[in-house]
Amino acid sequence: MSYVDEVLERVIAKNPAEPEFHQAAKEVLNSLRPVIEANEELYRKEALLERLTEPDRQFKFRVPWVDDKGQVQVNTGYRVQFNNSIGPYKGGLRLHPSVNLGIIKFLGFEQIFKNSLTGLPIGGGKGGSDFDPKGKSDREVMAFCQSFMTELCKYIGADTDVPAGDIGTGAREIGYMFGQFKKIRGTYEGVLTGKGLSYGGSLARTEATGYGLLYLTEEMLKCNGHDLKGKTVCVSGSGNVAIYATQKAHQLGAKVVTVSDSTGWVYDPEGIDVALLKEVKEVKRARLTEYAAARPSAEYHEGRGVWTVKCDVALPCATQNELLLDDAKALVANGCIAVAEGANMPTTLEATEYLQQNKVLFAPGKAANAGGVATSALEMSQNSERLSWTFEEVDSKLQGIMVNIFHNLDDAAKRYGKEGDYVAGANIAGFEKVAEAMIAQGVC
Ligand SMILES: NC(=O)C1=CN([C@@H]2O[C@H](COP(=O)(O)OP(=O)(O)OC[C@H]3O[C@@H](n4cnc5c(N)ncnc54)[C@H](OP(=O)(O)O)[C@@H]3O)[C@@H](O)[C@H]2O)C=CC1
Ligand SMILES: O=C(O)CCC(=O)C(=O)O
């Protein structure tokens, strides 16, 4: 049996009932086969893949808090510190009722390679809780965040592990968590990113994941003889990534005609009105029905359906496994030329394979959405030097990083005879640096 197959069997046996983690491990290790085969003796002796697929450590803890009726509620908190061979653990905190250890492990595993691709010194980690901020008062969210950080603060620090936002964790949650860290630990340090601008946050971090997605997509299209200008784009999701992806797509001359949330989706043939979307989602924290009610050109539909709309470019920006094989077939039938993942692992393995077989340009999330964590690393740099850079400075560094990521994965794919396979390219380019650092640092 090949080394990759042995390790995949081991991952499944050692981590039962964690299908998302199995999926991420399969996607990465299968596409690394040519690199592993070329160095099999060394990697086997070093047990490199066994070490890479086993987190350095993982924490699971009780998060008790009191709701507005005086009732005690109990959630589960997680932090998985996956790999710190190239820098302190870095990765977001997801607050969503679907969160479990397997989901946090898949996200932490992906984060190792994504963070390596940024070219910045950050290792891979992820955390979160099954707490649902939706429908909670600000006081309830604060009570949860304070309790969550009371335990998490034992394991994190500016040079150890630096969490940030993800689904359900935005500026409000990061603020409450930062306050509690400071109160308990008594230090004022860049322990979280995505902070408010009045207490150490970076300009352009809010926009970074969505903007970065468009910078990489534009470069991928350009290098394949297409222009983003004039293209029709379908976006899924309507949170942080989706909003700023839509804004940047419009700035670059494309037209976004859809957004969605977990209950329904909007088709707006005149182009999504970003100011209205921000008002509905960021200010009112309301549902997309409010967007449709305020916008005469928009149609609202219950359930799923974004990928049935004819488009040139598809940007899944909601959550994992939201673009299925049938969706991929609909996109291909409608002439879609590119898919770039704003979310983490939004496309299933079968759908990815179908899109690639049908010559759709496909940019995997670990490359395409790396602008968020890259800008978090820029926030860490600014915190270390006690300086704040301008929006233009951060945005131009972000743009350079995304263009560079695209060329690194394009080159890596070509080096291994897989030209145009950006999934393989991203995994290979991300892996090479981590593998070299792990071997240089000995058995640890
Ligand atoms: N924020 C960041 O900097 C980065 C985020 N990402 C990834 O991007 C994706 C979106 O994150 P972000 O925009 O920050 O999160 P937000 O919480 O701001 O928005 C998430 C969006 O996705 C929808 N959504 C969430 N879960 C589900 C679900 N199970 N089914 C259907 N729709 C769902 C939400 O709808 P509803 O409101 O109804 O729940 C909402 O529209 C995630 O995969 C995240 O890991 C990747 C890199 C960086
Ligand atoms: O900014 C960060 O540290 C994390 C962003 C994130 O969670 C991600 O890249 O998926």
Descriptive overview:
The chain is 49% helix and 16% strand. 52% of the residues are buried. The mean pLDDT is 98. The chain is α/β, with parallel strands linked by helices and 444 residues long. It has helices at 3-14, 19-31, 33-38, 40-46, 48-52, 101-117, 138-152, 171-185, 205-223, 240-251, 274-283, 288-294, 325-333, 349-357, 365-368, 371-384, 391-415, 422-440; strands at residues 57-66, 72-83, 89-95, 123-129, 161-164, 232-236, 255-260, 264-267, 299-302, 313-316, 338-340, 361-363. It folds into 3 domains: 1-54, no CATH class; 56-188, Leucine Dehydrogenase, chain A, domain 1 (Rossmann fold, 3-Layer(aba) Sandwich); 206-368, Rossmann fold. The protein is globular and about 60 Å long. It has a 7-stranded mixed beta sheet with strand order 9-8-7-6-10-11-12, with helices on both faces. A 5-stranded mixed beta sheet has the order 1-2-4-3-5. Helix 9 (205-223) crosses helix 10 (240-251), helix 9 (205-223) packs across helix 16 and helix 9 (205-223) crosses helix 17 (391-415). Residues 96, 98, 165-168, 209, 237-242, 261-263, 317-319, 342-344, 369, 372 line the site of NADPH dihydro-nicotinamide-adenine-dinucleotide phosphate. The site of 2-oxoglutaric acid has 11 residues, from strand 3 and helix 16.
